[in-house]
Amino acid sequence: MASYSELVGVAGAFVRAIAAGRPPAADSGLMERARLLLAEAGRGITRSSPWTPFERRVAIPPGRATIECVAQITGLPADDVEQAMNEHDADMEIWANSRYQVLVHRTHNPVWLSIKRIDQEVIHSWRDLQRIKNELIGPEFDALEIYPAEDKLVDQANQYHLWVFTDGRRLPFGFQHREVRGPSGIGEMQAEFEP
Question: Domain total for the chain?
Fold first, then answer.
């Protein structure tokens, strides 16, 4: 794993190069070392970072360049695009911890959680998704992760979606009792519980 001082050194080199008006070329040694350090940091985030409580983040309003680009692509007036983007952001909460960023859309029931790792790598840890649902919505609610028909498939990023029923409905299928245990040593494989 890269040292803290190496990470700071590469970040400093980037800042100095950009400030001098000479951003590093995509094929430069500095850029390649930065890529490797980012990959190492990403692996370290999920392997060694302790789980931290979620904190609410402030949505950054879309910049003028983004608004104008979307307006140009869609053919809509820039003011309409800006209003639509701001309305969309108003209906969404952004939460993050040491490992994940979660967009929470509470405008409908079920509540929609859009989840990605900070390093944008593949999740799929069932325990992490369960913990996210419990911490952000509540342990008393059922949630679904959907594997849709191909004609409704959305697969554009390592992003995962849960729909959480907050109106008291319980799913009429699935297990109806609790049975949880850690590693048993009797032929079943199970991960250790995180603190």
Answer: 2
